Amino acid sequence: MAKKAKEATAPSAIDLRWDAFLPERNRRQVEAFRQREWPQIERALVQDFRLVVGPEQEPHWVSPGSAVYWHQPITRVRVQDSDPTVGNRIEEQVGEWEPVSRDSGLPASSASAIAHYLQRPNPLFLRPQAVGASVLAAQEAQVPTVVSEVKPNYACKRHGQSMFSFPTWTGYLRHCRFRQEVPELPMPPEIEAMVRTVPYYCQLCGVSFQTERMAAHHIKTMPEKHTGVIAAHAFLYRTVESMKSEVALSQNAGSKET
Predict the structure, then answer these.
(1) Mean local confidence (pLDDT), 53-72
(2) Where are the domains of the chain?
(3) What angle do CA 204, 205, 209 make, to 5 degrees?
(4) Neighbours of 37 (CB within 10 A)
(5) What's the confidence (pLDDT) of residue 14?
(6) For residue 7, is pLDDT > 60?
(7) CB distance 204 to 236 below 8 Å
(8) Cβ contacts of residue 95 below 8 Å, gap of 6+?
(9) Angle between helices 111-119 and 38-49 (to 10 degrees)
């Protein structure tokens, strides 16, 4: 049996300053880009995508308009369940935070380029979340965080003798998208609290929208960008009305009762 990865953290040895990956030969050009372009990008992230970048989250620039993002690699391991009647199950294990494309970087020259990576189904991040540097939706900072005393575990039992188990809600939603399944488990309390503060919410992708236009754009473009979620996404969201947060909350209440 594969050894389960320890809880992911950001080692203190990792340099999280904005210039941690910056080649010295590009410093002058990047400094100019930061002064001219970055303030405009920050404003556009808030205005167009409702994303607030914290003071310690400025992208790790490697050249003007290119930056290093972060992610946690996911591995799937087949393990024997403690219940002999269940048999084997697939457990998703989360690795340590790692920089992505640390040499050449990924596009970060505009708000839309950054939002693409932060809001995609398998998101990247500007900093490891373990150090408290997640990008928040504009009102999300005001939402009280509900702390669970029990380590969460999200198990999908819709696959016969195989049970898929995930330590995070994000991992469970990724599984649903991959399998083209509608999420059936109730939301974690902190996600439910956040959904109550936004007008539109996509249950399958786990992202919120502040305007009808943004929600409609997501419905239109999601299948084009990610062909694997066409069936489940189309089933859930035929109209913008079906993406309203009260619909998600109503369906979530039904999940709690089953």
Answers:
(1) 90
(2) 139-151+182-258
(3) 110
(4) 15
(5) 72
(6) no
(7) yes
(8) 5, 8, 72, 73, 74, 75
(9) 50
